[in-house]
Design brief:
Structural class: alpha+beta
Shape: globular
Number of helices: 2
Number of strands: 5
Largest sheet: 5 strands, antiparallel
Order of helices and strands: HEEEHEE
Distance between the termini: 45 Å
Bound molecules: guanosine-5'-monophosphate, zinc ion
């Protein structure tokens, strides 16, 4: 299933151009348009699902592939000494695009803290 109005579904269909990192039958990966780290790409299920709050059994293969392939793709993009995988979810997670996506963030230097600690 795809959502005709979803920008990430449009990227999967090639209706919005993107810089592709990887594609197979279940997932699509492409560089973030506004990178916040030297390596910053997104991995998404091809099947439209709005957020991690809405996933079910039909998404297991795609979400599993995202986790399993993240390290290989990160290394291929130059993040070969570690990276961060973030899935912003819902209002509290400050998710902006409502199609599940994992951010892969990395580079040659350690990233900033995950969240500032309240002291
Ligand atoms: P969120 O806050 O939902 O986790 O992050 C959405 C991400 O999608 C942002 O980092 C934003 O830069 C990226 N993004 C939004 N629209 C586009 C687009 O049309 N193309 C690409 N490549 N990235 C996009
Ligand atoms: Zn979508």
């Amino acid at each position: 299933m795809q959502d005709p109005n979803c920008i990430f579904c449009k990227i999967v269909r090639g209706e919005i151009p993107s810089r592709k990192v990887y594609e197979d039958a279940d997932i699509f990966a492409f560089h973030d348009i506004h990178p916040i780290a030297p390596v910053h790409f997104l991995m998404i299920p091809k099947e439209h699902v709005a957020s991690l709050e809405q996933t079910g059994d039909v998404h297991v293969t795609a979400l599993g592939k995202i986790m399993v392939l993240a390290g290989r793709l990160a290394a291929e993009q130059g993040a070969d000494e570690g990276f961060r995988l973030i899935v912003n979810t819902g209002r509290v997670g400050r998710q902006e695009v409502m199609h599940v996506h994992a951010h892969i963030l990395g580079g040659k230097e350690p990233l900033g803290p995950m969240l500032p600690r309240a002291r």
